[in-house]
Amino acid sequence: MPRIVVHVMPKPEILDPQGKAIAAALPRLGFEGFASVRQGKRFELNYDGDASPEMLERAREAAGTLLSNPVIEDVVSVAFVDAEDAATAGAGA
What we know:
38% of the residues lie in helices and 25% in strands. It is of the alpha+beta class. It has a three-stranded antiparallel sheet. The protein starts with a strand and ends with a helix.
């Protein structure tokens, strides 16, 4: 089954309190050396049919309309992945 993955991040000028909280917690947990953290969102869109440029364009439209808030967020990437790639990425890659 084809899968499209969409990554959405806060715009650089938008404050990211979740990212700041994570950045503050990292050294307390022994993870040194990280200067900052930005928290984003990942969406996986599975669909029936073949991977096509038209389907990718529909996902881009959905990302800009529904999956992100264009006032405060940027759609960073919209791309096809196969099931094995998506499982590996979700497992800590």
